[in-house]
Amino acid sequence: MLQACNTEQHAKCQRRPSRHFGHDYLLMTVVHVQDRQGKIDDLIVGDAHLLLELAPQPRALCPSQPPRDGPVPRQSAGYSNYNAPPANNGYGYGFDSSDRSPAPSYHAQPLPPRTPQRPGAHQRGGGGSRGGVQGQGQGQVWRLTPVKSPDNSFTFRNLVAVSSQEFPSNDDIQLIINGQFVVSARATNAIAPGAIGLSSEQRTWMAVALTDTLQVELFDIFAQGSQAYLGSIDIEIGFASKSKTVEAAYDQDELTKEVVKVFQNQVFAPGQRFLMDSRSVPLTLVVKTVQLMDLSEKAASSPPSSDPAARGIVTPHTRMNFFKDARTPLNLKASNRRPAANAIIAPDFKFEDMGIGGLDAEFSTIFRRAFASRIFPPGLVEKLGIQHVKGILLYGPPGTGKTLIARQIGKMLNAREPKVINGPEVLNKYVGQSEENIRKLFADAEKEYKQKGDESGLHIIIFDELDAVCKQRGSGSAGGTGVGDSVVNQLLSKLDGVDQLNNILLIGMTNRMDMIDDALLRPGRLEVHMEISLPDEHGRQQILKIHTAKMRANNVMDRDVDLVELARATKNFSGAEIGGLVKSATSFAFNRHVKVGTMAGVSDDVASMKVNRSDFQRALEEVKPAFGVSEEELANCLHGGIIHFSSHINDILAEARLFVEQVRKLNSTPLFSVCLHGPAGSGKTALAAKIAIDSGYPFIKLVSPEDMVGFSEALKINHLTKIFMDAYKSPLSVVVMDSIERIVEWVPIGPRFSNPILQTLVTLLRKQPQKDRRLLILATTTQRTVLQQLDIWNDFNADIPVANVRTYDELAHVITDTAAFKGGASDTQRAIAEIKQITGSDTVGVGIKKVLLAVETAKQDADMVGRFAGVMARAVAEDNRGVIGTTY
User: Fold this and answer.
1) DSSP-derived pairing of the beta strands 459-464 and 504-510
2) Is the fold of 351-531 the same as that of 631-647+661-800?
3) What CATH number belongs to 351-531?
4) pLDDT by residue (tens digit) across 748-770?
């Protein structure tokens, strides 16, 4: 017959020594057993060996209970707070003294919860025995054998059960098992000394069996440093049993409250597994990553870690991110307030740290279109009913920073590095391998999306030289094998196919957007088309600062170098060309410190070397932009300069300046075309070159028939198209088309001309440039009537007539301006008088080009005046058409 006494009233029953372990300070609970003869046996509950002590005491169980007559009936045991064995534990049997056979076990009351320990209780030097075991300290090692957890009160609280004889603590304590696994332990009489109760999840986490022996020590979390608390924790959650599930979605905010309520002040580490009871449904939780932090005033946090040694304490301020276990049908409700679990943007990210200059607007647009929606709570995005952007296409001239942006995107990401692949690397000689390479790019994203759904992290794929494998289908780009078409089809299905992925972002880069298949450019795939154009003056200044940062920091750049001046002088330089400019300038600085007469010797004053302004000026003469001014070609057109022999020349230049300013203004005409027409040799090309150079536009190109000698029609069309496409890439551009009738291959015999080239020119004259781009077209012709017949004349917005040298006063002005005659004005008058006498004409009507050639010819003769008069007389006689308005 078994009955527990009130240990608080009975001194003998309140404190008894354990003769088995010899620790006289351990509190033991004594249960008296009365046999049939009235003798009392004392049963020490919790001891591995049931210590029975036959004592000649009265039939009364203790002084606090009155004696009874007759045998004491069997009754359910009553237990105090710390002596109750749990049900079915194998140790709470009552014994009968006659035959010592075990009587039926008495079911104990559930284990009462202990008061959770505050975070401050873990602090070292806190006083008393809080958080530890009274009389025992750090460094003591117990060798314990794992047993099953006593009951669910331990299992669903993630508690380890230890013997109250070995760990007589009133509070939960922290233990480290095998020097690796930190657990929260609670003392109970249900565990025998030398044993430790572990749940199945705990044994799985530690990879231990019930036959193993574990080394157990007390653990101080603050011995690892001040970052002992969990700032955030990523937890994978799923149903613990396939037979017990619910269809209703779990709210992440409610889950966070439950976890904090049950497991507050416990230590967790990556890889740890534990169970939780929610809605009477057992859930399995696995810690994936943790982020440690310090709760001091100047809090500091570490990056997320999956290292099992990175452990910390759960507090009410710990941010918890839940991911569903793909193997269970558990559903998580997207939070409306909780941001995305794994933020893709590093919190300390700054654009200026990326080393990309002149692309602030472009990068801001990329962030807004591709990344902004991903930093907001998934629940809010779900309410909007939108899909994240899956693809961005960066296109533009070479050297403008497309690949640099892709290379630096990893700096703004919090964890996962993007996958980078070049277009030609996809192609493979084996059948089907090219398509397999595309599928491998998306394999990781597909796997994670199946596991975590919208909580999946972002997978970025950077695809350089996209036009190499994504050409228009049916174009035969793959040599008739169809591999190019199948690669495009595979990419299309992965980006927006039947099984949609919402956790990918493909960034494609190309110089030839016109070659990309149209299906790839639609919304849902590469829907954001971002042009990376030439940098403006502010952007060039940023790029120069980046490339010269180390020079300035190490004081090897002279103070006379003005980056603002260089930014103004490098119009239409790409980022790569500015980098080449800086390298060219340093080469000149190096060259100054090479010993004279040697190729490898370095001068003694090399330590004082500095890159100065003159080095950059010489570099500007050496490095020319691909989308800049055709200086050499324009200089050839202006070999003799512009001679203002008539007010008509000033009128032409003044009117042209109006057109230049009209195009320059942002809200004015984005496209303007002017045709300069006049007799051959009247100076049309020189005037057009003068107008283009004086405009100050960063992009000036000359289209001349001389550049297309030997070109077929197709090559000429490609050449013209490329020049205009390049012009559209610059904010301000001038294209000079010289002798337009010769470009279209017009000849009077036949007559004959090239209609494909003509139609190309008509189209280019009418095509409006892109937004914020402005283009001025200057054309010259000697056949105005031919252009009218070809129906291209009306496509010009304005025309400017250019006349020959008409009067003898204008001729005298030209002679004086050239300073050819040594006799000055007298020789000039004598030459004009001879011309009048020979020709008998009162007008000249000769082009300025012929006049200048006559002057150069006369310089070779001893009689300069006579030779000049003779040459000019023949020219006047041959072509006296100087009056404007005559047919030419």
Assistant:
1) parallel
2) yes
3) 3.40.50.300
4) 888 889 999 999 999 999 999 98
The answer to whether the bond into 751 is cis (omega within 30° of 0) is yes
Q: Answer yes or no: is pLDDT of 8 > 70.
A: no
Q: By C-alpha distance, which of 397, 345, 405, 407 is closest to 371? A: 345
- Cα separation of the two ends of the chain: 136
Top-level CATH class of 631-647+661-800? alpha beta
Q: Structure tokens of 136?
A: 């025992």
CA angle 506, 403, 497 (to 5 degrees): 15
**What's the pTM value of the predicted model, to 2 decimals?**
0.59
Mean pLDDT along residues 436-456: 82
Q: What is the DSSP letter of 557?
A: B
Please determine, looking at this structure, whether the domain spanning 129-219 carries the CATH number 2.40.40.20: yes
Phi, psi of 677 (to 5 degrees): -120, 145
Q: 537-622: what CATH class? A: mainly alpha
Of residues 412, 365, 417, the one with CA closest to residue 392 = 365
pLDDT over 80 at 877, yes or no:
yes
DSSP 455-507: GSPPEEEEEESGGGT-BPTTS-TTTTS-HHHHHHHHHHHHHHSSS--SSEEEE
Pairing of strands 195-198, 250-251: unpaired
197 three-class SS: strand
Q: Which helix (H) or strand (E) segment is 693 a member of? A: helix 684-695
Report pLDDT digits (tens) over 383-434: 888 888 888 898 888 888 887 777 777 667 655 678 888 878 888 777 888 8
User: What class, spelled out in words, does domain 229-333 have in CATH?
Assistant: alpha beta
Q: How far apart are CA 695 and CA 664, in angstroms?
A: 9
Residue 173, SS3 per DSSP: strand
Q: What is the pLDDT of residues 268-318, one digit of tens each?
A: 999 999 999 988 899 999 998 898 888 765 555 677 777 888 889 999 989
DSSP 576-599: HHHHHHHHHHHHHHHHHTBPTT-S
- Could you tell me the residue ranges of all domains in the chain? 1-109, 129-219, 229-333, 351-531, 537-622, 631-647+661-800, 808-878
Report pLDDT digits (tens) over 213-252: 999 999 988 887 778 899 889 898 999 988 888 888 888 8
Highest mean pLDDT among 93-97, 103-107, 212-216, 358-362: 212-216
Q: What count of residues does the chain have? A: 888
Please check whether residue 808 is in contact with residue 844, taking contact to mean a CB–CB distance below 8 angstroms. yes
